[in-house]
C-alpha cells in the first residue's frame, strides 16, 4: 500500500518539525479516504512531529456532508490515484 510505504520513507528521514496535509478532493467515492482516512493513517504511522497542520480551502463551501456517494464496499487497498500519488 502506497500510504504505508510513504510513512516508512518519511520515518527513515527522521523526525519532522511539522507535517502539513494539503491534499483533498471535493466529491466522489474517495472523499472519505482521501480527505479523512489517509491523512489520519499517515500521521498515526509517522514518528510524531512537533506540529501537524491540516489545510483547507474554500472548496468546503461547495461540498456536502452527504455520505451516500462514498463507496464503503470497495476492497481494501484499491484507492484511486490522487495528487499525493503523482
From TrEMBL:
Query: Which InterPro entries does the record cross-reference, listed alphabetically?
Result: NAD(P)-bd_dom_sf (IPR036291)
**Where in this protein does the record put region Disordered?**
63-86
Q: Write down what this protein is called.
A: Short subunit dehydrogenase
Amino acid at each position: 500500500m502506497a500510504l504505508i510505504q510513504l510513512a516508512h520513507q518519511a520515518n527513515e528521514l527522521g523526525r519532522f518539525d511539522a507535517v502539513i496535509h494539503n491534499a483533498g478532493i471535493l466529491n466522489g467515492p474517495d472523499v472519505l479516504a482521501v480527505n479523512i482516512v489517509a491523512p489520519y493513517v499517515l500521521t498515526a504511522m509517522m514518528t510524531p512531529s512537533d506540529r501537524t497542520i491540516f489545510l483547507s480551502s474554500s472548496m468546503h463551501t461547495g461540498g456536502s456532508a452527504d455520505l451516500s456517494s462514498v463507496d464503503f464496499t470497495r476492497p481494501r487497498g484499491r484507492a484511486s490515484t490522487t495528487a499525493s500519488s503523482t
